[in-house]
Write a structure and sequence with these properties.
By secondary structure, the chain is of the alpha+beta class. The chain has 6 helices and 6 strands, in the order αααααββββαββ.
Amino acid sequence: MYERFAKEIGTDRERAYMKKIEYGNADPMGGQPFWIYGKLKISAAEQVGFLRTLYRNQLPFKVEHQRLVKDIMIVEAGRDWRLRAKTGWSGRIGWWVGWVETPTGAVFFALNIDTPNKTQDLAKREQIPRSILSSLGVIPRENKDGRSTPPIRTH
């Protein structure tokens, strides 16, 4: 889906949008999709900054479009929490970025890792942040029997 949107928007408009929102180096040149095969570079800190702006509907786009993107990003939800995230993989580097919404606010995360064992390493891009988020009590912990326990609210 993201690839289709990028193709429809085109390189010049992509560059203009990325400059407008100050998204990494704003360089969509290279292979398609450009965020995997192109020259686009963004740090984890920059990614979290972008996610915070999206979370607050403060990007220079229509609010309904920002809400649509956030709806597409829903991965999982519980009674009082919602996980929104996006994965990616270049064949060499895997990432998972997003946030968890709770009644007390949002917790943002951005992880990128080397994947020297290719597809065998892909699960780690989600396992690592999930482990940290559950240790923080933001998402449920999974028991050994596969059932989850509710998040612990510590804040």
